[in-house]
Amino acid sequence: MMMTATGADSSATVAVPANADWTSTGMTVHKGQWLDISADGEVSVEPGVPTGPDGDSGRRQGAHPVTQGVGLGALLGRIGNGPPFAVGHDLAAAAPADGELWLCVNDMDRADNTGQYIVHLQAA
């Protein structure tokens, strides 16, 4: 992870492995602070089923997403221990709370997951 901070502005580039639990960005944000997040890469949440940061909204028997209504394999965010939210390929929004920003892949059964997303974060 690479992170730079200047005053209230900070940026980071973080790798989010598909087979890991929540990944720390090392970035603390404040409620109302503007977040600009973009992600690239590919993960497989099942052998031979690749997807990008927006996830795959197709239904899969036995799928266990972290967040319902968001594509399986999509990039998710969370601030502190707050509720997860969809990030996908691109998100520009105000932080809903104060705390550390965490990222993960939308799949509870990560043992067979492969790949990673490279995520670029900017908070201003």
Structural features:
124 residues, mainly beta, Jelly Rolls, 6-stranded antiparallel beta sheet, 4-stranded antiparallel beta sheet, disordered N terminus
3D structure, described in words:
This protein has 124 residues and is an all-beta fold. The chain has a single domain (2-123), classed as Jelly Rolls. The protein has no helices and 10 strands. The chain has strands spanning 2-6, 9-17, 23-29, 34-46, 49-51, 75-79, 85-86, 90-94, 99-105, 114-123. Strands 1, 2, 4, 5, 8 and 10 form a 6-stranded antiparallel sheet that branches.
Low-confidence segments, given as residue ranges, are 1-7
Biggest sheet, in brief?
6 strands, antiparallel
Q: Based on helices, strands and strand pairing, what is the structural class?
A: mainly beta
Number of helices: 0
- Find the count of extended strands (DSSP E, 2+ residues): 10
CATH superfamily: Galactose-binding lectin
Give the count of structural domains.
1
- CATH classification class: Mainly Beta
Order of helices and strands: EEEEEEEEEE
Distance between the termini: 19 Å
Strand percentage, roughly?
A: over 45%
Q: In a nutshell, what does this entry contain?
A:
It is built from no helices and ten strands. With 124 residues, it is mainly β. It is globular.
